[in-house]
Design a protein that fits this description.
With 374 residues, this protein is an alpha/beta fold. It contains twelve helices and twelve strands. It has one domain. The chain is globular and about 65 Å long. It starts with a strand and ends with a strand. Its main location: endoplasmic reticulum. The chain crosses the membrane at residues 29-51, 71-89, 95-113, 180-198, 205-229, 249-273, 285-308, 314-332.
């Protein structure tokens, strides 16, 4: 979502004796435009990487598949998690809760960012430098009863990525800077789109439809989503300051986009790219259609939010766009039946052990809003 924090300075206005930040038109345009661009990057590259991930012969790299049962349960699990966080923030000290969450996301963020940077590091790592291979093996039992708990293979390139990610993690932990937050947020989003796979379009429609209701209810029906978003100090959202033009990197009045608005439509868009590949027609019609539909839906969300000055559940606009446009194309091309069937050319994936069990935080905040913080 998008949040603007109150402060004294240019663009501030007095409302009922309190100071409310009012973004300039240029500042709001820069903030919203930056958020849209940041949202598109993990969807586009995550979808491309999901194709290679689906074709992986390595069982450790095999993606997790979200079944129709997982998709039906996820809105309920997400609602319970969201409401649980809301109660925690009401009952316990916000400072201690955010400290625990910061440590958790510090570890999770380092792993996610390291995995995100790995392909780029493979390209830029100097060939004249040694690249040693390592293996982290943790077993249980002996002899025939010996069982592998952890078997992780990595090399020097991975250690370089881990070192860089750790620096970003320490930066985030100490300063909570918005750039460090965005690096982790982008990594979480890309990992989610890459590693979480829907088994067919029907499952995608169930998941998006359920979260459509979830998003609308928790934004319009209660203040839970907005309260948790304001209280939750973790990289589960992308932020960009609306006063960036005035204050640069020290800006503090943020527009915010929840990672749920990226990951949820993103895994559906990635599914359509894999469907395009399965057709073997050297065409990416469904992928580009859904990608443009996402841009349209997010743009419409920002327009409505800016017009009515009220928090908007982004999935209210993204879900109909991301499902409706590709389905319309499938009907026109006579491929609707194929689109709702299982994808044939890829090997079976690991069943998901729980919604969002990879290096992606659970219960993503999927609301777009631009409201003054209390």
């Amino acid at each position: 979502g998008l949040v603007a924090k109150a402060h004294l300075g240019p663009g501030a206005a007095s409302v009922n004796g309190t100071v409310k930040f009012v973004a300039t038109l240029e500042g709001a345009a820069v903030a919203y435009g930056s958020l849209v661009l940041m949202a598109l990057l993990p969807i586009f590259f995550g979808a491309l990487r999901s194709v290679n991930c689906a074709k992986s012969k390595n069982s450790s790299d095999m993606p997790e598949t979200i079944t129709s049962r997982d998709a039906a349960r996820f809105p309920i699990i997400a609602s319970c998690t969201l409401f649980g966080l809301y109660l925690f923030f009401k009952i316990f000290s916000q400072e201690y809760i955010n400290l625990l969450l910061s440590i958790y996301f510090f570890i999770l963020g380092i792993l996610a960012l390291s995995h995100t940077l790995s392909p780029a590091m493979n390209r830029v790592y100097p060939t004249n430098l040694p690249n040693k291979q390592y293996q982290l093996l943790f077993t249980q039992g002996t002899g025939e009863t010996k069982e592998e708990i952890i078997n992780y293979e990595f090399d020097t390139k991975d250690l370089v990525c881990l070192a860089f990610s750790s620096v970003v993690g320490v930066w985030y932990l100490l300063k909570k800077h918005w750039i460090a937050n965005n690096l982790f947020g982008l990594a979480f989003s890309l990992n989610g789109v890459e590693l979480l796979h829907l088994n067919n379009v029907s499952t995608g429609c169930i998941l998006l439809g359920g979260l459509f209701i979830y998003d609308v209810f928790w934004v319009f029906g209660t203040n839970v989503m907005v309260t948790v978003a304001r209280s939750f100090e973790a990289p589960i959202k992308l932020v960009f300051p609306q006063d960036f033009l005035e204050k640069g990197l020290a800006a503090s009045n943020f527009a915010m986009l929840g990672l749920g608005d990226i990951v949820i439509p993103g895994i559906f868009i990635a599914l359509l790219l894999r469907f395009d590949v399965s057709l073997k027609k050297n065409s990416r019609t469904y992928f580009y259609t859904s990608f443009l539909a996402y841009i349209f839906g997010l743009g419409l969300t920002i327009f409505v939010m800016h017009t009515f000055k009220h928090a908007q559940p982004a999935l209210l606009y993204l879900v109909p766009a991301c499902i409706g446009f590709p389905v319309l194309v499938a009907v026109i091309k006579g491929e609707l039946t194929d689109a709702f069937a299982l994808l044939p050319p890829f090997p079976p994936s690991r069943p998901v052990s729980g919604p969002f069990s990879s290096t992606v935080p659970s219960a993503p905040l999927s609301t777009l809003y631009s409201l003054p913080s209390p």
